[in-house]
Amino acid sequence: EKRKEEKTSETQVGGDTQCKGPVAHPERTGLGAWLRLVWHVWGEPWTKLLAPYMVQQGVGLAFSFTVLPSLTPADIADIGYLFLSYGVTGCLASLLLGRVFDKWGWPYLLAIHLASTAAAYACALTVYLTGLDYRFQIISAALFGVVDNASNSVVNMTISQMYVHDASPAFSLYRFMFCIGLAGTSIVASDTGPRTVAALACGSCVLAAASYTIMRRWCMPPTQPPCPTCPPVRISSV
């Protein structure tokens, strides 16, 4: 009987018949099957609206790891202090942002990401353009630790909500889109100044936030059962 239940491909949700659970995806028998699985995930409308956030995560990291160190005309020890502050705030943010998401929801997490993004890029460019002591970039690096963690948290927590039973194909797509943003921004950074890259990063962040808000308000699936025999789980859009 259990095997028959596992083979059930349709689950009655809110009066509509929807494909949910492990049988919603083709069986994994090789690389081709896995790629079809990822393509299946890409076919979901909400995935296309989440994709800009996946890409901008790579854009932000490209600035943090390629452009920001170039704004610090110092030896390798000073660069190490930059990333020490980045790592410390990133660890602290990972502890706090999860609590924010669980207690108050995605709008607060999104607001933290946008605010920290504006503060981080403003600080980095101000120190660079005004000729302040380059050690002030430690503050910028600390802010970028929050930025990158917040961006990553938005995507990770959203995917975990959308695919309760099997999120691995969606996370595979996330890493692919992330690498597109990282590689593309690194190419741009190699031939332009920091202001251009900062403008690109901030623009992509605003676009991603707008797309994500649309997804949350109008394109979220109403329910997501963790398995064919489990009761539906309500996913809040507010």
Content of β-strand: under 5%
Percent range for helical residues? over 70%
Report the span from N to C terminus.
39 Å
Mean pLDDT: 79
Low-confidence stretches: 1-26, 223-238
What order do the strands of the largest sheet run in, or round the barrel if closed? 1-2
Number of strands: 2
Helix-strand pattern:
HEEHHHHHHH
How large, in whole angstroms, is the Cα Rg? 20 Å
Number of helical segments with 4 or more residues:
8
Descriptors:
238 residues, mainly alpha, two-stranded antiparallel sheet, 8 helices, 72% helix, 3% strand, globular, disordered N terminus, disordered C terminus
Folded structure, characterized:
The protein has 238 residues and is mostly helical. The chain has eight helices and two strands. A two-stranded antiparallel ribbon has the order 1-2. A hairpin with a 2-residue loop joins strand 1 (11-13) and strand 2. Helix 3 (45-70) packs parallel to helix 7. The longest helix is centred in the middle third of the chain and has 29 residues, at 76-104. 35% of the residues are buried. Residues 1-26 and 223-238 have low confidence and may be disordered.
